[in-house]
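FORM 7B: Structural annotation worksheet

SECTION A. Query
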Amino acid sequence: MLQRTFWLSTAACIALALPAAAQAPPASPARAEAPPNTVGEVRVEGTAPPVRTSIDRQSYSVTNDLQATAGSISDALRNLPSVEVDVNGNVSLRGDPNVTILIDGKPSGRFRGEGKGQALQSLPASQIDRVEVITNPSAAFNPEGSAGIINLITRKSAPPGLGGSVRANVGSGGRQNGGLNLTRKAGPVTLNGGLYLRHDSLQQTFRSDRRFQDPLAPGDITQTLRMGSAGTVNVAGVRAGLDYDPDPKTRISLELDYSGVTFATDLLENLRQTTAAGATRADYDNGAGLRQDRDSLEGQVSYRRKWAEDHEFTASLSRERNDEDRTRPILRTFRTPATGPVFELSDNRNRFWNTRLKADYSRPTPGEGKLKLGYAWDSDDNDYRLLFIRGPGAGPYAIDPARSNLFRLDQQVHAAYVTYERPLGDLTALAGLRAEATLIDLDQPTQGVRASNDYVRLYPSLHLSHQLSEAQQLKASYSRRVQRPQAQDYNPFLVYVNPTNRFQGNPDLRPQVTDSFEAGYQYRKQGTILLATGYYRRTRDGVNDVYRDLGGGVILQSKANVGRAQSAGVELVANGRLPGRVTYNVSGNALWNEIDARDLGFGAGVRSAYTVFGRASLSWQATDKDFLQLQGFMNGKQLLSQGYRKPRGGLNLGYRRKFSDQLSGVVTVQDLLDTQGYATVIDTPLFRERSRGESGNRAVLVGFTYTFGGRQRDQGFDFGGPGPS
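SECTION B. Predicted structure
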């Protein structure tokens, strides 16, 4: 408690010192600001390259991505360099799945935990204007996410008066989605709002083949699992916002955002175990259902005071609540052994509250420098309740106390940072330091386990940019990142998944720390952009899945700090134009990865692998009204702590017809070749498993978009202007 009080007091003192420190250097004379609403809208059509770089990030426009027009955020991310997205919506950056997703620079609870992939698949990409990929963030950003940050920038421009858009898409397999966006600007007040609805049908097949040692006889037992499922996903989202500008330098904003996801599916699976002698050891069917409801509600109030370019103060306070209810009933019918059917029902009730307070101050300094200071407080409250009910197939049913549990975790992070950027001739340097105090309390009343896990870390960063010529630039950077375990990763309760699988968290987990180094070259001239980046990451205390054979074919999946890991690679990106009004976007990534798992103590060793990732897009402006697009991607073999994930790829096709300045139609084909499955191999001294899943992702979507009241475009993203702040 004394240590905790000390660090809280230190964080508070740092926060109080920031305003005083900010007054130290005299500000440069403020440049006169133009009166509001005096500059006409800038329209750039078909000439702007889709990528822009700055000293610490790369920004990609998704305005002309036809898959994003009718699809989800996952569909938009799947076509960006450095980014990989699997069939479940889970995102990786350069092979690392520990990615932080932000919306307009702010975190969201919907992108945490097991449901973040589903959230990305549920939200419409049509609300996104561009995506910032920040593989080596500066100290001004939260260091959470060892792979880096993906920042989704929403469309914000609001011409005077009433404006907006209406869109609707229908597709094969019962897929439907649509939305409405509205803005109204009158004097100092801007109102904006939106509605989004989505319905998807789901089909999936899964199979796994597992071999493990027979506890009763020589040789191995072979286990086969075959599963088929079908279901639906319904999504509804509503957002509303208000901006009030009492004067040209001040803005007060209110935001409210709600999203609800309902997932329902039915599945049938068969599990069969055979001994080395060919005898049937187990044979049963599972008839199961799964219903999951996830509601997210967030409110935020923010204040901004801007005296001049690069001289402003911002503050925000937000509160978010996520409710997730998941019910899974199973009726298990046995052939071997010859026993009666068994009914099981797991009922999960997860509650998550998050409160964030953030303040940032920036100002110019002599010598064209820029100083930024900030403080942030982030508080999470997590409550997890699992109620397990079981009994004979015909009843009666009763709560099983040995398989039910309650788990609570509270986490607070206090952070203060400073960054300083300054040009030195042709060289520009951006240096930063962030200090964070993390306080964690966990409570497992079922087992009477209570623990605390407090620590303090420093996160430095350095970015360098050297202008070789008007068209060429060199860049180098370093940052330290952290990956804190998810709340459920700490839960020590042994969770019963099914007769052959268990899961158990680890309250002693340490945060994963990564030191990331990059060096790159950029060429940009006459619409052609070439980027080449070399990178190296060194990780300690990596948090990974670990599988153990408990005997009798029961496998325990847990979490552990798997020693050390390192990776290195080269990324190439090319964007440009070909004859005949054709543009291309091509990127590739060659990666070497090594995981040292010798500290696990059950035969694991040093594993390494080479892999490649690539994607390409060809766009053809056939006429002034017709636009066609072909996209493809390939993700190579991905190393796991005890195995690997096999390569996979996909191909998408799109066509847009512009009927008028207000009305356009789009036809898209997702997963044209029906190849977006996944396959995983787990190989340990005690058991081996091969698994493969196939999702019914192939679909044809037809949609229309109607805009009114002016063109809705974020004027702050002018590809020809200076880099983003």
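SECTION C. Observations
The mean pLDDT is 84. Helices lie at 2-22, 66-70, 73-77, 116-122.

SECTION D. Sign-off
Analyst initials: ____
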